[in-house]
């Protein structure tokens, strides 16, 4: 029976020709075991089943799978090697079915080992990628948190400045009201008594009164403000001062909660003052020489 080459053995075992030719060529035709090891190691190569292009002069499938044109053995060595070649040819026999199955099992085991190694390697790479993703996620979260913290600090600083500016504005209003009180006290402190006597009616001559005097022009207004809790506060304002001055006075001296928005109204006849009214003088609104106003929630 003719000896089967490594290529023929692989083909008989069910391997494709392209794959078998590559295995024989890359292992140097060193035997079936080396060829099967190479196939197991390169099972996942994308070009494993593409046609094999053999170098010029390389013949696959022969007994020696030798290169054409190789130098002949030295003269005189024919007889020495002839005997060993005959012995080798006699010792090599075609693989039995049991040997083929054994080789297939061995190849399958090698492929399972290679696949397990590949899966383990892929699992390790996936773990590394997952660690990298988590690290990047943590870094992004830290950046977002820092941006949020910076934004909160900016907002807090802005609120602090607003409160400071509001406090300073209130302080300026208080100082202005205090100066106005001092000016009024200085103005009316000495002449109040002399001005009060002409207004008193004469008890001895009620029937001798002449024609009614002309309407007096007042340049001030005494305002009484009834607060939300029922208490009252009083103040004197210039007749040409806007109603907004009364509102500011209530904000500063009243017990209205901070941030509580309110408006002013006249109880009789009932009239609710609008934002436009706040810019009008007290005299124009008919609140001179005196008036009672009520604080009402908006």
Q: Stretches where pLDDT falls below 50 for ≥5 residues?
A: 61-92, 190-198
Number of helices: 7
User: Strand portion, in percent?
Assistant: 5-15%
Distance between the termini: 115 Å
Structural class: alpha+beta
Describe this structure in words.
The radius of gyration is 57 Å and the shape is rod-shaped. The protein has helices spanning 6-12, 17-26, 32-41, 78-91, 97-188, 192-196, 243-253; strands at 220-226, 232-238, 262-267, 270-272, 290-297. A hairpin with a 5-residue loop joins β1 and β2 (232-238). α1 (6-12) runs antiparallel to α2 (17-26), α2 (17-26) crosses α3 (32-41) and α3 (32-41) runs parallel beside α5. The chain has 298 residues and is an alpha+beta fold. Strands 2-1-5-3-4 form a five-stranded mixed β-sheet, covered by helices on one side. The protein is built from seven helices and five strands; from the N terminus they run ααααααββαβββ.
């Amino acid at each position: 029976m003719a000896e089967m080459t490594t290529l023929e053995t692989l083909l008989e075992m069910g391997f494709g020709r392209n794959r078998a030719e590559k295995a024989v060529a890359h292992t140097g035709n060193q035997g079936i075991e080396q060829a099967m090891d190479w196939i197991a190691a390169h099972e996942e190569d994308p070009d494993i089943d593409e046609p094999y292009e053999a170098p010029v002069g390389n013949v696959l499938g022969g007994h020696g799978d030798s290169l054409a044109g190789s130098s002949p053995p030295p003269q005189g060595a024919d007889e020495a090697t002839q005997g060993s070649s005959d012995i080798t040819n006699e010792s090599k026999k075609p693989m039995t079915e049991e040997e083929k199955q054994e080789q297939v099992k061995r190849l399958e085991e090698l492929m399972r080992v290679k696949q397990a190694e590949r899966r383990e390697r892929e699992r390790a790479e996936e773990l590394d990628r997952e660690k990298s993703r988590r690290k990047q996620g943590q870094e992004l979260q830290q950046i977002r948190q820092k941006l949020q913290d910076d934004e909160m600090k900016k907002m807090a600083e802005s609120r602090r400045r607003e409160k400071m500016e509001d406090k300073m504005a209130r302080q300026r209003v208080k100082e202005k009201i205090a100066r106005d009180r001092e000016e009024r006290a200085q103005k009316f402190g000495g002449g109040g008594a002399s001005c009060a006597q002409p207004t008193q009616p004469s008890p001895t001559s009620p029937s001798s009164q002449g024609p009614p005097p002309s309407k007096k022009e007042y340049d001030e207004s005494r305002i009484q403000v009834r607060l939300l809790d029922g208490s009252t506060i009083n103040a004197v304002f210039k007749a040409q001062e806007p109603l907004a001055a009364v509102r500011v006075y209530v904000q500063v001296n009243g017990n209205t909660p901070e941030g509580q928005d309110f408006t002013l109204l006249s109880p009789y006849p009932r009239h609710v003052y609008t934002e436009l009214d706040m810019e009008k003088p007290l005299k124009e609104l008919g609140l001179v020489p005196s008036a009672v106003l009520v604080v009402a929630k908006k």
